[in-house]
Amino acid sequence: MGVKQPLATMPMDWRHYKALICGSMEQLIGAGLSAVAGVVIPMLSLLGHGELSSSLQGLIGATALVGIAIGSPVIGGLSDKYGYAFYYRLCPAILFAAPWLVFAFPSVWVLIATLFLTGFAVGGGYSLDSSYISELMPEKWKQMMVGVAKATSALGFVILAGGCWIILKAFPEAEVWRYLLLLISALGLLTLLMRIGYPDSPRWLLLKGRDAEAQAAARKLFGPDAEVLPLPATKKVKAVGWKEMFKPGPALDKVIFSGVPWAFEGVGVYGIGVFLPVLVMGLGIDASHAVGMQKVVNSVGLTTIINCFIIPGFVIGLWLMNKVWHVRLLTWGFVFYSIGVGIVLAAYLLHWPMWISIAGFLIFEIALNAGPHLITFVIPSQVFSVAELGAGTGIAAMQGKVGAVVGVFLMPVLLKAGGMTLVLIFCIAVGVLGAAVSAIYGRKVLPKGSDRAVA
Question: What is the pTM of this model?
């Protein structure tokens, strides 16, 4: 054996990247699940489901998000008590099995049940993925790798939208909608196979006093010279409850800054993300004047192209994360989010060429993912103290999911009530309000320089 290498100071190698990939899969699958739901909704409408009202479309789009919101605290709490490893494999097992339910019994209500189950498993994975990554990465790379894990959601939108487009190009029939859910099943199986043999987190084992198992887990993950150092003795801090967080003053300012922009971001990521194929069809961006199923296929193709620009958005955000004040990055992300949607609205009302609408969507995607989608994920850990972290992070995440659910549910309702114009005005207003809240409360809660940014 060579010189012992503590996990916290090890250099990054292929085993860390393997752990990063394994711990990022639910981020990818969760985004992909939203993309699949957005494709399935217009296909069900083509099949003539009379019960598929605008509110039911919103319910279909939002169900997976509700499952995520429930699965994250449930699985997170169980894993804190009983260990990560079992649930780290249970979540992808559910993702593999659940889509076969709707494949065997294709109906709207079985679809809703399936989306809830898959969302529940994704939410459970969210709580486990971030824990594994933050506990296994070297300290120097921890924050960046957590950001990279979040950025893999971009790949989920692209891969699953592209997969749907390939299937629909080969089989352009509305009846194949249930086959699209099997893409989620395939990713669940891949994730399960990747995680076979993964041990419990070494630091969790140390926390439970199982020191020998912790060292064995470290060696299994990173080689015979790896070790996990004993946890430092820390002064016990009394946790702050949710009630104290809502008292007027600094605590409430933190709650607003960490959660309200996250809610507005959720409207853009999921409200527009889930219904992007529907919006593309409604805006008439498809220049071929296709009808029926071919119109759906074309919209999914354009959706895939637009989603590709999520990736450079995250790349730009990760590059700027340690260079630009996070309040500035968050605020200007919302500003350009609104500008992008504003261009789409102007192109729609003034009948400008198709490429201008597409350009507006691209500006929206890049700005949203370089700013709000990335930065809202890291803000809670920056603004809350140790005593507030559990309650503060939970409240912020809850606000984010509420925003996502409301955004997804409202999209088809607004579309029916006021058409594409009302939908786009609503999205612009969300971006403007997000920028205002970020700028006003960010200066109070996260002063320039406190996030270690240099500009």
Answer: 0.84
Distance CA 398, CA 246 (A): 14
Euclidean distance between CA atoms 199 and 218, whole angstroms = 9
Please write the tens of the pLDDT for every residue from 42-67. 888 777 655 578 888 889 989 999 99
Q: Which residue has the tokens 């099943």?
A: 185
Domains contained in the chain, CATH given: 1-233 (1.20.1250.20), 236-455 (1.20.1250.20)
Question: 154: closest CA among 366, 298, 301, 328?
Answer: 366
Where does the pLDDT of residue 432 fall: very low under 50, low under 70, confident under 90, or very high at 90 and above? very high
> Rounded mean pLDDT of the chain?
86
- Hey, what amino acid is at 250? P
| Mean pLDDT value across residues 187-194 | 96
Of 166-170, 182-186, 311-315, where does the model show the most confidence?
182-186
- pLDDT beyond 90 at 135: no
